[in-house]
Predict the structure.
Amino acid sequence: MATAAQADSGGILHWLDRSHTVAKPGFSRWLVPPAALCVHLCIGQVYAFSVFNLPMTKFIGITESAPDDWKLTQLGWIFSIAIVFLGLAAAFTGTWLDRVGPRKAMVTAALCFGGGFLISALGVYLHELWIVYLGYGVIGGCGLGLGYISPVKTLITWFPDRPGMATGMAIMGFGGGAMIASPLSVWLMDYFSSPTDVGVTGTFITMGLIYMFFMLVGATIVRVPAEGWAPEGYVAPAESKKMVTTAHVHVDEALKTPQFYLLWGVLCLNVTAGIGVLGQASAMSQEMFPGKITAAAAAGFVGLLSLFNMIGRFFWASTSDYIGRRNTYMIFFALGMALYAAVPWTGETGSIILFVAFYCIIMTMYGGGFATIPAYLRDVFGVRYVGAIHGRLLTAWSTAGVLGPVLVNYIREYQINNGVPKADAYSVTMYIMAGLLLVGFLLNWLMTPVDKKHHMTEAELKASMEG
Amino acid sequence: MSEPTEQENVSGANTIKLALAWSFVGIPLIWGVLNTLSKAALLFQ
């Protein structure tokens, strides 16, 4: 196995090494969250990829789809492939990232994500969909996964006193990225479009270069704390609290604990329910309030949900520093169940304000679930391998990314085929999602500290630091 | 007038770096949020 010293590169690449990212005395730790945000604000673009779907069905026809144009169903796979590779990259590169440090990982993420756009631009130009799958889906997806987990451990190490807030700030960027990408993409497509071009090629090239630059700035700013550094006035707890350990669990050992699978289930169910309702938000709002919510207003509603998704990431992760991670998830699941079940009732009352308010709170908890999980993992498994363990746990997200939409679409189709009116079909879906949250509640309730037999010994910890 | 200490220099440099770094990420984010809010306003019109 390569040691940390061996992992150091020579020549110009030396700048990327962990040893070159160790902060000098006087460095402000508050520079690390913007470094992380540089990456997360970019990769959050994935949530806005759907703005390209319609223009990409008109490359040949320009004003409307021609028979040889790509179909929406084919284009839907770009996002799905990217999310699957996000999970895979996060799972398989976590240990490597732990060894090489955040800068090399962030640069690799920038090259993959920005490069993915450039390759996709070539695919669009040649009208070869497999190149777009490879570019944005596979390579860009790897950039997503690597970029997502790269600053997490660094932030937790810089903010041992507020790990939830620190990771919440970064992961908030992932939620906010779509709010920047969506209008930017529309504006760029408008700028590059002509009577013979829908403008996607130029937009992909521009966005690829902008994102690569932005992420590289983040990689330049990022630093890791020097060995033994602690914030002023902070005293590390000498003994473990009930749900916050001072020990460390190796990433491979973590997979042998029930806690890893309980948290996997907790994340998967929270995300499945969230993705499920997010996917139907636009149609649901228009069909539950016919004549009152127009298509344009529904688009604004979806944007508003992105905003609350982002706010929830920071709010709930920060709150978890005070009330504990387990309690935070208890709130997500208990309050979530009540709100999911109550959304159909808001339709019956005809109150748009209540409907929007309930949906917005649900979205804060969906985002909060993502943002609180790194700190939860740190509490349960310790700091040493939290990045790698977080990477493995993100496979729950990939699973939910497929499960959520499939479940919602299947349930809806089944009901409509059985004569349930369209507007009422949402009610059963929401009740089933509430049921999923009940299962999540139980899994979270079962969470206990990891058995000491899984903890690393002092010798193992020392060896892992050296190696 | 006394020369600024090393600590004061570090602190001053940090303030500038912090302002630049947070502006770099904050400005696009605020732009995105304002854009979103203006579109969401249609919901309540």
Notes: Chain B touches chain A at residues 7, 10-11, 14, 17-18, 21-22, 24-25, 28-29, 31-33, 35-37, 39-45 (CB under 8 Å). The helical segments of chain B are 6-40. The mean pLDDT of chain B is 84.
